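Weekly structure sync, notes
Attendees: PL (lead), two postdocs, one rotation student
Agenda item 3: pending single-chain targets
PL asked that the sequence for the first pending target be pasted directly into the notes so everyone works from the same version. It is reproduced below exactly as submitted, 270 residues in total.
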Amino acid sequence: MAEPAVSEMDIDAAGLAVRLRAVTKIYDNGVAALGPLDLDVAKGEFVSLLGPSGCGKSTALRLIAGLSAPSAGTVNVSHRANRKDGRHPIGFVFQEPTLMPWASVRENVRLPLKLSHAPATDADSRIEEALAQVGLAEFADAYPRELSGGMKMRVSLARALVTDPDILLLDEPFAALDEITRFRLNNDLLALWRKLHKTVIFVTHSVFESVYLSQRVLVMTARPGRLASAFRIATVEPRGEEFRTSAEYAGYCREVSSALAPSYSGQRSA
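Predicted structure, written out during the meeting:
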């Protein structure tokens, strides 16, 4: 007997931002990418999805964002009622910055406001605020070719924040960056999360990144992705370099790595 769909009112009462129940995704070519997957994410929580390539982490984000429909199961997302001011319940940061090379930083960040027909009266102030939040206020008139890889990703993050989303989905945003830049952006992302109180779901291949950033790390199996194990990273806040170099951090990384190992050993080739 099919499980009844969960209403938005139900997950609101439970304090949840996202709930997936028995979700599967099978593509037209017959590849079973995901599931069955059950997932609860609390409002304001920072959660990382960790697993091998092809296990369905990015697919899960696209389902939550409404960019793709599940083959079975229910996806419920709680958010403020949509308003006609260009605000959107979900912001998405992709693996690549995907910036328009012919447009300035300011105009790249403006894009989602234009697409949602947001009133022009407050667009400029919202763009300036988003750029200030990611430390790029002085680069509003620069073009993508003038920016480093880390700065381009900051623009992509500002573009997601400009719509004031309740939920921020990040799909391996720092994977292509050098280690120093990645550490800096990890710190900046944590600072933004503390300040803005967004719900964050972060996809990564890095055990070290997931443990440093997250309140919970969810380890997924090889394709089709399911939840194999979950770890609550209970440490003193705010986190910083002392945590990154602590025995506690190393211990969490060992635990998560041990749970991840079977997912890699059972990974099938694409």
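Discussion points:
- The two ends are 33 Å apart (CA to CA).
- The chain has nine helices and nine strands.
Action: rotation student to compare against the earlier draft before next sync.
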